[in-house]
Amino acid sequence: MDVMEAARIAEAAGRNVVHMEVGQPGTGAPKAALDRLAADMAGGPLGYTVALGLPELRARIARHYGEWYGVDLDPARVVVTAGASGAFLLAFTALFDTGARVGLGLPCYPSYRHILKALGLHAVPFRTSMAARLQPGPSDIADRALDGLIVAGPSNPAGTMLTRDALAALADASAEHDSALISDEIYHGIDYGSRAVSALEVTDDAWVIGSFSKYFSMTGWRVGWMVVPPHAVRQVERLAQNMFICPSHAGQRLALHAMECEVDLQANVATYAANRDLLMEALPRIGFDRIAPPDGAFYIYADIGRWSHDSRAFADEILREADVAVTPGLDFDPEEGHRWIRLSYARGTEEIAEGARRLERFMAGRTPRGDAR
What is the Cα Rg of the chain in Å? Predict the structure, then answer.
């Protein structure tokens, strides 16, 4: 957020900034879906919905699991939420009592840690490795006495995914150690080569988080969803009634319509794929050669340790000298994020290409640090 604000100030001063810090699509919701929502709104006021979400949207999400993953899902297990953030609040509140220990592999989405702390829960971070493509494994559960584990694929910030076998092994280890498995799947649909695997393909006990923000290009509409075990539905419903009343009615109707706009949505993914290929060719040449190649999402997490051990200062320097906004790794990893940056490639291809050109000029002639490794 600090980088975004600095970029805004630079633009207000008349500078042209390439935005590679923003974790959201450069496109809006599909036009056909917006047109159908306009017709819905012309038909009368959109008041409260039931707390679990519009029944027709819950049914459509359940059908989505059959279409994408071959999973026969009861719509009664689907909870529509106020963005994926609302889903995390509901899941953590329903699953854990004060003081519970919830594991997460570093680097990871920072709000996991902050939401857990706000709820009086203990985030238990552990180190992942480049060899494991910055993903957790079963051994990370065994000796930590965890009440829960959060996994994500494609992940933020690295864009890496767990294979079906790896996800099944994590599910088995979680069950063996009586640890709840929470699977963050909000970037599903944005993948390159192999499709993302849902935790529901390997276990019926996972709590699965989805979102309309990324693949469906609806960030500002704040609609997500959660799939919960059957025994938890009523508990989550009571929590949702009190915490949120319901998600945005208009957002829910737009989400329902967006699910029928596959052609537009796949065109967005094709743009992200082109951007990914462009950066994966350019960044090693520029000097950012230690990367876990992203399987999905629209991020690259790059080790800058050859050049700096202060990712915040390095990001400030890139913005000041190259007019490119990138995200320091500190939020994603408070232990080692000082030597990493995240680059988002969710914008148009020409903008990403221009960002790469500016970064190449910025890096030209730089000398690596003596203690780079």
Answer: 21
